[in-house]
Amino acid sequence: MRSKLKSTPLINLNITRNKIILIIVLVIVLALISVGIYFIVKFVDDKKKKKNTVSNGGSSTDSTAGSSTSNLPNYNDPTRRNFNVSNTQITGYWLSIPDPSDQNKLVIGTTNPSNMQDIGILYTNTYPIECFKNGLPSKYKQILTSAKEKFISFGNFTKDNTSPKWSVNDLDFIMRDRIFNLTVIKKEGWDGVCFVINQCDDTDGSFVPLFAKCFERCKFVGLKVLVSFISASPIGCKTSSEYYELFKNNKNIDYISPGYIVKLDGWNATYYFPAIEMNYSNSYAKIIPSIPFDYDAKNMEGTLFDGYLTYFRNK
C-alpha cells in the first residue's frame, strides 16, 4: 500500500512533463510553419514586383517610388515653358579628376565654381568595378566643395570602340552582396550616383532591366539617381525605344541630363533643346541639360527645363 501511494506523485509528475514537452514541440512547429509561410509570401511578392518592374520599363510599383500619373507635370502646357536664366530652379556642374598623363580623356572642368550650386558631379571616367578598385568613392569624397548634393559618376562620354563600356559584371557589382557597395557610397557622404549611359553597350536591350534594378537599389539605400548621356539620347541603340521608356517612365530617376560636348563653335542649341523636349516630355525626372558654360543657358529661355549643369567654368 505504501509503495502505491509513493508512486502516484511520480506518475503525475511524468504526465506533467510530457504535457510540457508536447506544448513546447507544438510551439516550435507552429513557429516554423509561420516562418515558412512568411518566406513563401515574401518570395511570391518579390516575384510579382520583379515582373511589374520589368513590364513597366523598370519603374517600381511601390507607391513610395514616385508620383502617380495624375501628378505628372504637363510639359506640353505652354504656360510651363518659363525657364528663365535669372530664376533657375536647379544649377549644377561637372568636375573632372585631373589626369595630365591621359591626353585622350575628355577634359571637363577641374575646378569648383565660386558660388554654391545645387548639384555637383564627380566625373570619374570609370565604371563601378574600376572605380572601387581605385578607391575613388573615398579618395574624392570631399572634392565637390561647391555642391549641396554630391554625385559620383559611373561610365564615360567617349564614343570610340576601344573605350571601356558598361558590362553585366559592372551592373551586377552595383547590385550584389545585398547592396553593400552602394551602402559604402552612401556612408562616404555621397548623395547620389550619376549613370553615364552615353551609348547602348548591349545589342538586344538586355541591360535595360538591369539598369532599372540598379536605380531601384540606389533609392533603397537613400541615394539619388541621375542619368546622363551626350546628345539628346544614347547613341548606337538598336532598341532605343526601350531606353527612352526606361528614362521617361522610371520613378527612381531623379534627374535626366542630356549633354552636349563638341567644339564650342559647333554647338547647335537650336536643334539640341527641342530634341530633348521631344524625347523626354512628361518624364518623372527633372530635366537638367548639361551645357558648356553658364552663359549658354540663355539659349534655354522659354523651355520646359528645370535647370542645367555646366561642363566648364566660365572663362
In words, what does this structure look like?
With 315 residues, the protein is of the alpha/beta class. It has 2 domains: 1-55; 83-310, Alpha-Beta Barrel (TIM Barrel). The chain is 38% helix and 15% strand. The protein has 7 helices and 9 strands, in the order H-E-E-H-H-E-H-E-H-E-H-E-H-E-E-E. A 9-stranded parallel beta sheet has the order 7-6-5-4-3-2-1-9-8. Helix 4 (168-187) runs parallel beside helix 5 (207-220). The longest helix has 54 residues, at 2-55. Residues 1-6, 50-73 and 262-266 have low confidence and may be disordered.
What are the key terms here?
315 residues, alpha/beta, TIM Barrel, nine-stranded parallel beta sheet, disordered N terminus
List the helices and strands and how they pair.
Elements: H1 2-55, E1 90-96, E2 117-123, H2 128-133, H3 136-139, E3 147-154, H4 168-187, E4 192-196, H5 207-220, E5 224-230, H6 240-249, E6 255-259, H7 269-280, E7 286-287, E8 290-291, E9 307-310
Helix pairs in contact: 4-5
